[in-house]
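Hey forum,

I'm writing up a methods section and want to include a predicted complex as supplementary material. The small molecule is pyridoxal-5'-phosphate. I've pasted the protein sequence and the SMILES. Can someone with a working setup run it? I'll credit the forum in the acknowledgements.
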Amino acid sequence: MEKMYTSLGIDEDVYRFGESINDSLRERFLQIDETAEYNQLKVIRAMHECRVSEACLQGTTGYGYNDLGRDTLEDVYSKTFHTEAALVRPLIACGTHALSIALAGNLRPGDELLSVSGKPYDTLEEVIGIRPSRGSLAEYGVTYHQVDLLPDGNFDLDGICAAIKPQTRMAAIQRSKGYDTRKTLSVSQIGQAIERIHSVRPDIIVMVDNCYGEFVERIEPSDLGADLIVGSLIKNPGGGLAPVGGYIAGKKEYVENASFRMTCPGLGSEVGPSLGLNSAMYQGFFMAPVVTAAALKGAIFAANAYERLGFDVLPDGAEPRHDIIQAVTLGSAEAVIAFCRGIQKAAPVDSHVTPEPWDMPGYDDPVIMAAGAFVSGSSIELSADGPIRPPYNVYFQGGLTWPSAKLGILMSLQSMKNAGLLRISG
Ligand SMILES: *Cc1c(COP(=O)(O)O)cnc(C)c1O
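Reply by user p_vandermeer:
Happy to help. Structure tokens for the complex are below, copy them as they are.
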């Protein structure tokens, strides 16, 4: 084994260090495998109940009327997430698009959207109109209000109740921290917030941005009262195989409302061909519980390795996990660059390219990204990125298999060691 790692450029000290971290995590990884087992059974049971057949793997073109595979896949998502309905489509371009149509389909002029987990994900600022933007909800007369999380990272339940007004129509909760430095919210915490909101006004539509959270726990926010859960198929539920797509699952009326913004009023979910993608979307969803487990092990391995080397990590090495993102504070631009170059070197695709920081649209500082993915931009695959600014955080996520995620972290350590940025003794 060690020779195999040596042939990939991992030296003896880094390998031994990795093994000692690995040994300390056996018990923890067993629990993750059990969650994966549970969730795998949940998906298989849904597939059985929906009588997924070989015919479902075929696709339609054109209008896509009566696409059996597409409609059955949506039933599989509903049964897995215990919702009345689901919209799962390659026509939904990404997570932001899914969230955008869920909001736009359910809000009307004069309604207010209340975010109860603080500032939403960057790309939603323009959807909502927090940053003025053409076509935003604000331009259509939808107002926005936000209640921040408390300093300890919990929901401000009293603040939320006080912020509910007669015009509050939807409440939004973001499960993952995204690129923020807060804690990720657990499904049980989310459930408590939903309960409080619905105790004040049962008719408020609670939407959870579930990106990066699917299958990390045994339950999803829809099991604890969320009216809508929304996510991207190039993250957890696509299992690395879906080449594009998003999903919206929840109450039938609200999912249908979203469908009228995905296509148009009157047509809704009736149109929209699955093209040749049904097979990949089914297989990806089938794989998703174990792929998510692999990514989770990678994140925990990274947290423990970098924590032992003296870096600040979020979440820390021992904390329970509610999403697959790992932040590491590396403290210098050189370290962020070396880390990302190490991740890139472990990728199955484009391992020979060297990532450089660049001025990405929408960001104030240069950003470096490591990604050598089968699906462009996929972040359930091994990937890392970081803005080149203090405190020099890097965000690491994904890994379709645990050994590939482990190699990624070892490569990042080796790359930093080679650049003289850390000292490791086995
Ligand atoms: C990734 C992500 C989104 C947006 O998804 P895209 O596919 O990048 O548009 C929204 N919210 C959170 C929390 C995310 O992690």
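Some notes you might quote in the supplement: The radius of gyration is 21 Å. The chain has a mean pLDDT of 96.
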